[in-house]
Design brief:
By secondary structure, the chain is of the alpha/beta class. Helix content is 32%, strand content 26%. It folds into two domains: 212 residues, P-loop containing nucleotide triphosphate hydrolases (Rossmann fold); 58 residues, no CATH class.
Length: 304
Amino acid sequence: MAIAAGESPPSAPAPQPSAKASSTAAAIVIDGLTKQYPKVRAVDGISLTVQAGEIFSLLGHNGAGKTTTIKMLTGRARPTSGRAQVLGFDVATQRDRIKPLINLVAEEQNLYERMSGRENLAFFARLYGAPDSIVGELMETVGLVDAAKRRVKTYSNGMKQRLLVARALVNQPRVLFLDEPTAGLDPISARQVRDLVKSLSRSGTTVFLTTHYMEEADELSDHVAFMAGGRIVAFDTPRELKLRYGNRTATVLLRSREEATIKLADPADAMRLERWMADDDVMTIHSNEGSLEDVFIALAGRPL
């Protein structure tokens, strides 16, 4: 995982889903994972599987248990009960085997701001025993070559976030955890980070991310899970979740220029549409697919 100042480098219809059948090996397998703190159960017996090479998003309100889940999967917190494996290794008993194979971009930007971007990467490359050549490669990967010699304190938030991603790639992780990677970024910077995440997935890296942005999860994710009260309340592809829980409607523009919204599953609305079609009154029809936000509100009761 990414090392903050002062840390040591690592050594070299039930809503609880089962593993999805796939010819691709599973990168993460979670079975009944629970984290109990003295006054709250932050994670309450969750189960899910993330396949190798996919982008997986864990969505939920603040306090839903997302960050605690990442902490357990990256070895920063011990599960109270249940099991989880990352790349075939147990997160409770084989953390030293997992750490060289993963990395983390946490929500806080813990960079050395008095050092240049290149110096930040070079420092962490040495800690991981990575070759010096990887520094230039990563600066190019995240589009910071022109700013490589500038002190990080002069970087914008978007540049800092891309540098954090570069830092998390110094050990060429097979699984990359991203906790709210675009929080607080302007639209252009957020787009750059999303494009970088897509590129990493295409290269074979498994990406496990949390985000508050439903559009971002919809764009990036192969699978998403909604978390509420420490539990998984839904798990599937974004498309299937929208079809299952979304409000399936269509907007019909009539020749009178009047617009009407019809429910696709309503027999009465189907008859209305049939009459308009028979009378040649329809100019256009646009389907309104449900959004992931619609799904989340239906399941969790309130928007993010």
